[in-house]
Amino acid sequence: MSIEEKAKAEAKKLIAEVSQLQAKARSQTQASQVETQRLMMEISKLQAAAVKERSGEKARQAQSETKRLMSEQLSHLTSRQQNTREQLDRLLQAKQKYDFAIKNNNADANSKDVQLHQQLLLMIKKKKEEFIQCNKEIEELKFQAQKQSVSLDDIFKSQRESAANVANTQTTAIPKPKENPTVSVAERAKAEAEKLIKEVTKSNRVSDTATKAQEVSKMIEEISRLQMSADQGTLSESEAKQLEERVKKIEEKQRGAREQINQLTQAKIKYELALAKSVEERSKENARREQDEKLRGELNSLIKTKEDEQRKLLEELETIRLRSEQEAALLKTQRDAARALAEQQAETDKLNKANRKRGLSKNKMMLGVVLLVMTIGGGVAAFFMVPKVNEWNGNRQKNDTAQTTSISEEKAAKSPKKAEKPEKIEPEPPKAVVVRAVRTFRDRLSSGGRAPEMVQLPAGHFWMGVSNTQPFGDERPQFEVSLESFSIGKHEVTVEEYRTFANATGRKIPDGGEQANHPVTNVSWEDANAYADWLSKETNAQYRLPSEREWEYAARAGTLTTYPWGDELGSNHANCNGCGSQWDGQQIAPVGSFAANAFGLHDMIGNVLEWTRTCYRPSYEGAPASGQDWEGGNCAQRMVRGSGFNTYPKETRVTKRKFLTPKSYSNNLGFRVTRVNS
Hints:
Blueprint: H1 3-53, H2 56-105, H3 111-147, H4 153-170, H5 185-200, H6 209-232, H7 237-420, E1 439-441, E2 454-457, E3 460-464, E4 479-483, E5 486-489, H8 495-505, H9 525-539, E6 543-544, H10 548-556, E7 609-616, E8 634-641, E9 657-660, E10 669-670, E11 674-675
Helix pairs in contact: 1-2, 1-3, 2-3, 2-4, 4-7, 5-7, 6-7
């Protein structure tokens, strides 16, 4: 049988075998799809039951079943892909042999040969499409596994081992290079692929493609000539040996080329698997990062909810405390009034009793005198004197009774006036209270970064201004103010914080702002108000400048003294022109350089003056006792509170007031912000 007939027979045999394998694969695929759909429905039921009953055991069972089914499906796809690859390789080999046989015979192909050749090409095309389809299905399975958080690392490992075994059975053993544990799988696969490509393209094997094609053409012509001589019977023994050697060399080169193709294919498979694993690892890392971000968001939301609950509870406790103090004060007033009434009643009873005793002693004395006269005068005198004595005694008794009645009425008239005094409730003198901040926080800016550090103050009341004995008329009269809870800056707004605002809005950065941790100065009321509005937009919270009463409440921190630390200025408590600090009268100090007050606020006294939102009034006459601000006034002037680094000690106190126009600015004038608690 000639080479051409052998090639035709082998091609027909392969076509029949491939057709059988295709039919078997289709039946297996259909059965596998039906079974997979049934099992996926069972998995869906298990997962639904796990979600409904919140059972960890059922959830793990569903996860395990999902992994098992996906593993079976992946094994099936891998096996099908391997079979398709083997069939494709065998078809390519048959096509090469058939093409080689046709060229060597130098004969024109008939219609059957053309039809067989077309069948081979069509079959090869189908196998390529099946191989690509298998790859797509494997990728879809990987995506489903990643979406359902199912790990198929062990299946991928077995897949790689099976691919390596198949490659080893088809090719000769290739020595494995020593793996460097510090190099990734993808890099090792890439290096191996590059090494194989270099080996194939070495100059000592082939000079270039044109030279190789020329050599092959010459060898084919020489073999054809020798075969023709053999068919004509004119082939010598040496020529026969030469023909046989040529054929062997061609077959050896063909085997070598096939081995190189297999090695390159194996390297490509390893490289693709490594890339797939790398993609899978990145996908897992992204999923884990998204889960961490989600968990972090839930924790932040829960913390915020708990903080709001705590704030509401503190406000309720403060309200209850204030109500209990008011009720206690009312009970005390009622008790004092009742005690005064009881004392007045006891005094009246005592006076009435004394008057009665004095009237009885006078009557006894007069009776003794009458008896003495009657004894001395005798019977006749007694006869004439008895009517007179009786008349005199009657008049005396009437006078005593009238006198007693007059005294009683006078006392009774005076007693209501004394009883009315306790009803007039005098204002209690101011008392210091113990206060404590609710919390400290910093809001996030939508453009990145953080807002100034804020301290949330509890709702409460305090005595604002100075007593009438003090000479500061604009700080009188002293009155009690009730405020709701609000938050205020722990420090004045710093240069760094204001620079962020200026860069974002294109506003001019004020002079003297070289030190980032110093309070910003040379800012007008309009600049400070614009900064508060910008904070409100960036944080979705309501920021503003403090009112006068909010500022003094924060500065006092429950005290009644001239300074938050006492009535004496002392040394190194603040930065002013005589406060005993290293910056006195020379320059501004960094924020937080001195001890905080009871609320945890720094530099309420000294360092820089601070803007408020309150309009100017010359005194506190007619000020309301509640509310966060006293609305109205002369808004062409705005109140400034606190003191600066160059302020003298006599002007340095909590109650000190000053007013400026909104466009004013100075190197000792800054501000801090407040925030409305939501």
